Amino acid sequence: MTYAIALNFEDGVTRFIDCKVGEKVLDAAFRQRINLPMDCSDGVCGTCKCHCETGAYDLGDDYIEDALSEDEALERQVLTCQMVPQSDCVIAVPVPSSACKTGTGQFNATVASITRHADAAVDISFELDQAPVFLPGQYVNIGVPGSGQTRSYSFSSRPGDKRASFLIKQVPGGLMSSWLERAKVGDSVAMTGPLGSFYLREVSRPLLFLAGGTGLAPFLAMLEVLAESKARQPVTLIYGVTRDQDLVMVEALQAFAARLPDFSFVTCVADPATGHERQGYVTQHMATEVLNDGDVDVYLCGPPPMVDAVRQHFKNQGVNPASFHYEKFTPNAVSAPVTTGDAA
């Protein structure tokens, strides 16, 4: 038996290691050629201090308070030289991956299926040479064949599947969009990742998901994980798009509603000429009750104006969510098209 430990470095790189029962994280990482920060390895110096975001663990009592104070331990700060996981864990490492002599994983992928949603988006899936392990919500860089460049897209499929799916916005004249026009089953691409600090944390309170356009993709991955784990907290998704034809993958959301008893979603279209039943932006269709007087974890993925509008809406409503995780994206960026932020 082993535990899966996600090491999230400050440069956005995530590496997964397996940790044996009774094994310390520092030892497990070193065994897998990841040199986490350390000096003493005896719980004395505090150099290996990290933050455990999710999961159960034992720190024992063989470290001194100068290395880790009681207050720090209560805040889930850990010494990886003493930390023995008792479940899968996510650990924030406060240094770049290069400092630990590691980096992004690389794997090859072959186009398995392509579904085109008119001129709005492409739902594409790839067969992978190895099943990537990632946190639901994270993204990879996909090499655009023949260009020497990459574009970044969030997984819409669940972690661990040998087939990875992505929902990609159609951008007229865009590098990836131009390749997708001629892409066919069997074509090969290279991927690097996983990357990003936008991912589903441990669920302990109601969730509010806010998706703009193809920003729906990471939420499809999150919903897969929530459905499998039979999450018991209410989950609300508000999905906003610009045009009627941009409203895609609604059938998938309906299927999740059937699998997750406490999941509900609403859709809205910004175009004033829409024939959709709800016209406007996500902030105009955010019922007061879904904010739960601030006792809610909010996840938002959409273009920068949407992120800014939601933050202003919370301010105007006097609501301070228990946690607020967001990812901004621009569909025509050259490489990593996201900036991520967390607000508590």
Topology:
Layout: E1 2-9, E2 14-20, H1 25-31, E3 49-54, E4 57-58, H2 70-74, E5 77-79, E6 84-85, E7 89-93, E8 105-117, E9 121-128, E10 139-144, E11 149-154, E12 163-169, H3 175-182, E13 188-195, E14 207-212, H4 217-229, E15 235-241, H5 250-259, E16 263-269, E17 297-302, H6 304-317, E18 323-329, E19 338-343
Parallel strand pairs: 1-7, 14-15, 14-17, 15-16, 17-18
Antiparallel strand pairs: 1-2, 3-5, 3-7, 4-6, 8-9, 8-13, 9-12, 10-11, 10-13, 18-19
How is this structure best described in words?
This protein is of the alpha/beta class. The chain folds into 3 domains: 2-100, Ubiquitin-like (UB roll); 105-195, Translation factors (Elongation Factor Tu (Ef-tu), domain 3, Beta Barrel); 207-343, Rossmann fold. Helices cover 17% and strands 35% of the residues. The chain is built from 6 helices and 19 strands. The strands form 4 sheets. Strands 11-10-13-8-9-12 form a 6-stranded antiparallel β-sheet. α4 (217-229) packs parallel to α5.
What would the keywords be for this entry?
six-stranded mixed sheet, Ubiquitin-like (UB roll), Elongation Factor Tu (Ef-tu), domain 3, globular, single chain, 3 domains, Rossmann fold, 344 residues, alpha/beta
Termini Cα gap: 35 Å
Radius of gyration: 21 Å
Oligomer: single chain
Task: Identify the overall geometry.
Answer: globular
Please identify the structural class as seen in this structure.
alpha/beta
- Order of helix and strand elements from N to C terminus: EEHEEHEEEEEEEEHEEHEHEEHEE
The averaged pLDDT comes out at 90
Total number of strands: 19
CATH fold field value of the largest domain: Rossmann fold
Uncertain stretches: 333-340
Count of structural domains:
3
Portion in strands: 25-35%
Largest sheet: 6 strands, antiparallel
CATH class division of the largest domain? Alpha Beta
CATH architecture of the largest domain: 3-Layer(aba) Sandwich
Work out the helicity level: 10-25%
Number of helices: 6
**CATH-wise, what's the superfamily of the largest domain?**
Nucleotide-binding domain of ferredoxin-NADP reductase (FNR) module
Which strands sit side by side, in order, in the main sheet?
Answer: 11-10-13-8-9-12
